[in-house]
Amino acid sequence: MGGSVVAVSSNGVYSFSKPNRESITLLAGLGVEGDVHAGVTVKHRFRMRKDPSQPNLRQVHLIHEELFDEVRDAGFEVAAGELGENVTTRGIDLLGLPAGTLLRLGDEAVVEVTGLRNPCAQIDTFRKGLMKQVVGRGEDGKVLVRSGIMGVVVTGGPVRPGDPVGVELPAGPHLPLEIV
User: Fold this and answer.
1) Phi first, then psi: what are they for 160, rounded to 5°?
2) Of 55-59, 62-66, 135-139, where does mean pLDDT reach its minimum?
3) 3-class secondary structure per residue, the chain
4) Torsion angle, CA of 30/180/175/7, rounded to 10 degrees?
5) 133, 66 Cβ separation under 8 angstroms
6) pTM here?
7) pLDDT score recorded for residue 121
8) Is residue 50 very low, low, confident or very high in pLDDT (cuts 50, 70, 90)?
């Protein structure tokens, strides 16, 4: 099971979207070098107001490019980095991965999946009506969050578009992703 990196993005200042880069460097235990969300403790502004000492389980944000195809069919143009993700992938069901999955990005970097991205109102500010495309309900009535996954950097290294993404599932039982 594997896929590839389509784009990498980072931003040193708080903003909703992140510009694409030729490469990013992941730093073990911190996140994306030079990105505003890098750090041992939480860097998300809302979460920092609640408790700035929380561990940063949101060091790296990943989105599957297939989501952009789906929202395009609904009339929304969204490109890599525009929803604030650091790594855009193709060919992996990111939302179906269990917590604790290891993603091997390129030759060196390893990210451990911690949970789902909590979608925020800024998604509708970016494109009015887009929130309904990334948050919905399944056939069983459960809320489905499709705005990407979050992870922490286990092993650092460079990540570039075109790099392979390997998937290593954790030992069972597998725990479904929850919002982090």
Assistant:
1) -135, 155
2) 135-139
3) CEEEEEEEECCCCCCCCCCEECCEEEECCCEECCCCCCCCECCCHHHHHHCCCCECCCCEEEEECHHHHHHHHCCCCCCCCCCCCCEEEECCCHHHCCCCCEEEECCCEEEEEEEECCCCCHHHHHCCCCHHHHEEECCCCCEEECCCEEEEEEECEEECCCCEEEEECCCCCCCCCCEC
4) -60
5) no
6) 0.95
7) 85
8) confident
Buried b (16+ CB within 10 A) or exposed e, 65-81: bbbbeebeeeebebebb
From 120, 121, 104, select the one nearest 112 (Cα to Cα). Answer: 104
Is the per-residue pLDDT at 2 higher than 90?
no
Query: What is the per-residue pLDDT for 154?
Result: 98
Q: What is the pLDDT, as a whole number, of residue 104?
A: 98
Residues 6 or more apart whose CB falls under 8 angstroms from that of 42 comprise 48, 51, 52, 54, 55, 56, 57, 58
Cα atoms in the 13 Å half-sphere on the side-chain side of 41: 9
What is the average pLDDT across 24-34?
A: 98
Q: Name the amino acid, one letter, at 25.
A: T
